[in-house]
Design goal:
Two copies of one chain form a homodimer.
Chain A: H1 2-5, E1 10-14, H2 18-29, E2 33-37, H3 41-49, E3 55-57, E4 68-71, H4 75-79, H5 83-87, E5 94-97, H6 103-112, E6 116-117, E7 119-121, E8 142-145, H7 153-165, E9 169-172, H8 175-202, H9 207-216, H10 219-225, H11 232-241, H12 243-265, H13 269-286
Parallel strand pairs in A: 1-2, 1-4, 2-3, 4-5, 5-6, 8-9
Antiparallel strand pairs in A: 7-8
Helix pairs in contact in A: 8-12
């Protein structure tokens, strides 16, 4: 562990939910001393029972001695850190976050802390909360860092080593490009799929006709609606933190859909064949093994 | 086999692809004499080798003695039957089809044959052609029949027994309600999902940014784009045969999407929570076990 040998043996984690708790479990196994900051006494109790960190406390003071601090609380809290928390962060500590949107986080934190590095480990399950943390969550997942011109290079190296130690694949990206990519591949599927579910209300499908649709529905409908029928709060969080990129993406999506509609309307079947072939090619490029 | 005892022991199948071939295999096992009509000599050879029917021929004359005839060719052919075929169908034979859209089929066939019953076994794999037929394809799948006021009740009973003999769940529906339901749960997922794939062109995603999106894409994008990245010809067939219902469905979908967009634009996060909760409820009602 290169960065451990440089004195990075104490790591603080703010928030012990799915990501924070999983980090705690893995980092302890790697031999680090982990300090977990939580909000509530009930979370504290369960985090201790689950041994998500060696030290768990509701007092940010536990972070003051940490050479690396990972912000793993919900995005709204990452973006609006409390004064108490900020007061406990040593100016020499490297700070990173794990938020799923990067530009708004960087905007806030680059001003607050000179050794801040924005990052986003692309790991996750549908679980959340103090019970959700699990070992080896980050193995083989992309860990995207979004350094800017102002990013401290040594701090970036520390986060790099962190990601690699956890088995993640290191990816460097521009923060805005990251947020746009995430809007396309992670947030748009939720919107597109939720709109498909909600259109049953829009067309007034009910009674026998709704029952018929239910009887006839199969794997195509099931797969296409999966993420739209997921946790509503996660959907709201994502929309509220990546609003601009999502709205841009919806505009593009609407054009793409309108194009298919107009081809069907004018019965240009050869053109439809071309469009659907393009879709097939795009997907196979995404998921070539 | 109730309908076998009534003399329904010879069954003709027009087309020995996925559905026709699977019917042939199962019906022979049930003790029926199966006559398979195919177009091409090469198909004839393989259908014989695979024993999809006892008699396989390219001459529709083989159907003249069948008391039940199942139209299992592609939809465009079902809708525009050849004179040669029609001349070989005995007026006393019960005729049914397995097309995935019902109103256009009924419109044509009710005029052509007094003992016609429209039906749609909701079974399928992504395979097609003479190699695709497999045993027990229809087991536990819904088999929708769409009788009209003019439908011969005895003919309907024959198709009912056919479906039940193959292990299918019998469902009676209005043809237009069927086509609308199928547009919603089977055709819209393809459109919605293809538009999501094609929007990468619309937003001009390329080079590094496209590569980033590919690296970051995970199960949500994969599932939501699955049917849109499928066989383009199937998508064209479906659009060309169920055009009206699909266009109506796209209009409703556009309203549903516009609603989500406008909520995100005006940052009404509580309203978004309500919409996404509704989506979750709709899906859980569809797939309650």
């Amino acid at each position: 562990m290169e960065f451990k040998s440089k004195g990075f043996n104490k790591i603080g984690i703010v928030g012990l939910g799915l990501i924070g708790g999983s980090l705690g479990l893995d980092l302890q196994k790697l031999g680090f001393q982990v300090f977990g900051l939580v909000h509530r006494e009930t979370t504290l109790k369960r985090a201790k029972e689950r041994q998500l960190a060696q030290v768990v406390d509701t007092d940010p003071q536990i972070l003051s001695d940490c050479s690396l601090i990972i912000l793993a609380s919900p995005l709204p809290e990452i973006i609006a850190p409390s004064k108490e928390l900020l007061n406990c962060i040593n100016p020499n500590s490297v700070v990173t976050d794990v938020g799923s949107v990067k530009a708004p986080v960087i905007k806030v934190w680059e001003k607050l802390h000179s050794k801040f590095v924005g990052s986003h480990p692309m790991a996750g399950t549908s679980a959340s909360g103090v019970e959700a943390g699990q070992s080896e969550l980050f193995k083989n997942c992309p860990w995207v860092a979004t350094p800017t011109k102002g990013t401290d290079q040594e701090a970036l190296e520390v986060v790099h080593h962190l990601a690699v130690s956890l088995g993640s694949k290191w990816v460097i990206a521009d923060a805005k490009a990251h947020d746009k990519a995430v809007a396309l591949i992670s947030h748009m599927p939720v919107i597109v799929s939720a709109a498909l579910l909600n259109m049953t209300k829009e067309i007034g499908l009910q009674g026998h006709d709704l029952e018929l649709a239910r009887i006839l529905s199969s794997s195509g409908y099931k797969d296409t609606t999966r993420v739209g029928g997921g946790n509503p709060s996660l959907g709201v969080n994502m929309a509220c933190n990546n609003t601009e990129s999502i709205l841009e993406a919806i505009n593009s999506y609407q054009l793409s859909l309108e194009r298919l509609k107009s081809i069907i309307k004018t019965k240009e079947w050869e053109e439809l064949q071309t469009e659907l072939t393009q879709a097939k090619v795009i997907r196979s490029e995404f998921f070539k093994s």
